[in-house]
Write a structure and sequence with these properties.
Helices cover 52% and strands 6% of the residues. By secondary structure, the chain is an alpha+beta fold.
């Protein structure tokens, strides 16, 4: 049975971290809200269910048979061993999960650059606050996270340019997506920072050439970044560090 991924149609968002793992592994899956005859209504019905024992709070979530798994890091922790995208050994798998949770923290801070006050308000209602938040993010938080992940790559005892273990894992795929998104949303800052974090840039280039990833990126399944997702390009927020 195919995996079923539930996420908002029209944006990459958090669902893209799961899609990249499924695509890289060549897994059989259905992107439910984009599937003919299904759509967003099916996702909302499940989220609003009064009888589902494992009702999810918000997308993305994954259905595998009778099992429903929510939250990106939790989904990838579940999928990793099944897709051949998790390191061997329990200790390394927990470390990989910790790295993915750190990616989650990073992504939350990216989101808050354009919605620093409330997600219920439009960006236009909080533009001044967003400018201040983006300046803090670009000047301090972005290099803190990028520097950490670059250091993790350099200190991996198994080498090979991977975040954890000696082969590609879902963490590597997620770091690829982070760099893609930052290049879109904060192009000026990334031009400044990329030369400081060569290991991350090398990992990004390596993931991009993986056959299944390259095919996915060239396909209509890969949605374009836009100003409804997490990574948004607002020129007034894209400042030099």
């Amino acid at each position: 049975m195919a995996y079923e991924l539930y996420y908002w149609d029209g944006i990459q968002g958090r669902g893209e971290f799961v899609r990249l793992a499924l695509e890289d592994a060549g897994a059989d899956y259905v992107d439910v809200t984009r599937a003919p005859g299904r759509g967003t209504g099916e996702m909302l019905k499940l989220m609003e269910s009064a009888t589902e024992a494992h009702v999810p709070f918000a997308p993305p979530f994954l259905r595998d048979g009778d099992q429903i798994i929510s939250h990106v890091a939790n989904i990838l922790f579940y999928l990793g061993p099944r897709l051949g995208l998790a390191p061997d050994g329990e200790a390394l798998r927990w470390f990989a999960n910790g790295l993915q949770l750190t990616v989650t923290d990073f992504i939350a801070e990216v989101h808050d650059t354009h919605h620093p006050i409330a997600t219920s308000k439009y960006y236009e209602d909080q533009k001044e606050e967003a400018k201040a938040r983006a300046a803090e993010f670009v000047g301090n938080r972005m290099p803190k996270f990028l520097g950490y992940f670059d250091r993790v790559l350099g200190q991996n005892p198994d080498g090979g340019g991977h975040a954890v273990g000696n082969a590609v894992t879902y963490v590597d795929l997620s770091l690829f997506q982070v760099i893609e998104g930052l290049r879109y949303a904060f192009a000026k800052a990334m031009r400044h920072y990329e030369r400081q974090y060569p290991k991350l840039m090398k990992l990004h280039a390596s993931v991009k050439t993986r056959p299944n990833i390259a095919a996915y990126l060239a396909s209509p399944r890969r949605l374009a970044f836009n100003e409804d997702g997490i990574f948004r390009r607002y020129p007034e927020l894209d400042i030099e560090p």
